[in-house]
Amino acid sequence: MASLYKCKLDANGNWNEMPRALCELLGYKREELQKLKLTDLIREEDQQEIEAYLNELTQNKAPELAIETEIASNLGEQIPIQASLQTVPAKSDEDKIILVVIFDLTDQRKFERKWKTSKQQFESLFRYNPLPVYCYDLEGNFRDVNEKLAEFTGLSQEELIGMNFDEFINGKDLELSTEYFEKAKQGQAGQYEIEVIVNNGVKKDIQVTKFPMYMGDEIVGVYGILEDITEQKNREKAVRESEQRFRSMFENNPHSVFYFDTNGTFLSANKKFEELTGYSESEIKEKTFIPFIHPEDRESTQVHFGNALNGGVEEYEITGITKSGKEKQVRITNFPYYEGDDITGVFGICEDITEKKIAEQELRRSKQRWHQLVEYNPQPVLITQDGTIVFINKVGAEYYQAKSANELIGKPITSLGNIEPLSDAENRINRLAENNQLEPHEYKIVLADGEKRHVETHSIPIIYKGKHAIQTVVHDISDLKEKQQSIGKSLKQKETLLQEIHHRVKNNLAVISGLLELQQMNITDKDTINALKDSQLRIQSMAMIHEKLYQSETLDSIGFDVYLEELVESINSTYTSAYKNVTTEFVLDHVRLDLNQAIPCSLIVNEVIVNCYKHAFDEESDGLIKFSLEYDAPTVFLEISDNGRGLPDDFDISIQQSLGTTLMNVLTHQINGEMSLGNNSHSNGTIFELQFEKTNSEA
User: What would the CATH number be for the domain defined by 359-476?
Assistant: First the structure.
């Protein structure tokens, strides 16, 4: 607070009264100060103004004067003051007293200088701040902004004045920004992070600091400072993502992952480590890796660990020991664990290769077995790659008339001899190269000395020494071929002989049938003629069987469905004069029967059909005979039905004594079949049914 000094002057400007405090301020003794006028002490440029004022006071022209000036102390120091001069009424001009009130402005001037400096500093801080700075009015509109905010938003300072900062804020953060703006209006400073969209449409993350703007004790606006933290956020995001990737890779790695400090003490391990060793993460912490290693591998493991601490990447195989004491073959990869530029530990990735080692061992044994099997195989075995021989066993080398296997290695497969047909061999090689599995194949080959041989090759695609190859086993079938040719020739002779036998049997039966025909011409008894005719038909049915057999390619079976139609046609032609209006219908499966079943069946059918023609129909009446042949392996079903008069009610085929019925019973028993003959329950006439199991021959 400014010091106040009250003084009095006479009309001539001499001191009338002065306080001691003024003497102390100016550094004068009272008597020294009494000798000086006020105008002697103030600065020169203000002296005339005060002297003129004193003159005016004496003339009653100016009632009061207030002036700011400087007063000199005894030490020559200029002290800033404000002086107020006022005349005190008196009876005469000589008695007039001038009341002088002096205010020491030293502290005020210091404050003003400090305030000015502070204002300049604030203005500089506002204008030249490396961060965007602005101030709002109480409505949230920009009153002032620095150049950095203009650069940040992409708008000019002039364009920003009057805009509302909310226009830049992403909608999701608007509520948060408004909350801190309201707090600043209430006198609370605050800091928060939001996302804004600047003029070029780019989204940026910023950190905003808001605080109240005072004028005196009144809040007239809000200051704001923002910092672009987009890169920081991106870095933080990258760090989080990197950490997430690390944790994901660490936790979900298919192998055991762990890391140590520089002393080899476990810091952490994933679940796979627990599955492999049986130790949980809590059990291994503060333990070194040494107890988990087989004693024979501990020294080498420490060397690898030390190399990793020096920045190297180490990969090696050791035997580990699980919690249960079981030994495991593992492959370890160690590499340094960095924090910044410093190595603070070692990472480890452990792969369980126990089964792989067992498989490798088994593969070695398998290769040994394969080598022994191939090398000592009594058949030639060779392996080719792209048509070139890369392996051949000793037997193969001897077969192809080479002195040793090495003599043939590297040569084309065609060097083994001429292959007939060559096109077949080339085609099979191409198909095998495509990993196709092929059936064995026969070739004729001509060896180096001109000898001709028959071979059967068994080829498969394989991998040999890491490359695709074809392995071929060669069987010499020359002797087998000779035997097959001999057997084939003998079989052909037997087939010809069998055909001749069937032909002669058929001819002989035809002769017998002819004799019976001649005999009928010399007999007048009708019953005898019918008996001879029945016998003739039986002989003809057997003759037809032999005819079919010698015409058949197989010689041991006939198509019974075709035979059945021809047999019916033959019988029909015999009885056509008496029964011109009998028709036949056929529903037949294809069934082949051998000789032992075909002849009995033909005789049975002959008896049934003849009886139909002779007994089922009245003369000159229409008749229908249906034939059904079904095959449901292995059973054959034969059904013959007519629409004739039917059988007597007391008819029983099993007790009939006629030649025909006796023959049918005997023949049915011969083929292990079952038969029935009776009236048709569904229509008029009779129905015959026969079933038996077919012998094992072509259907």
Answer: 3.30.450.20
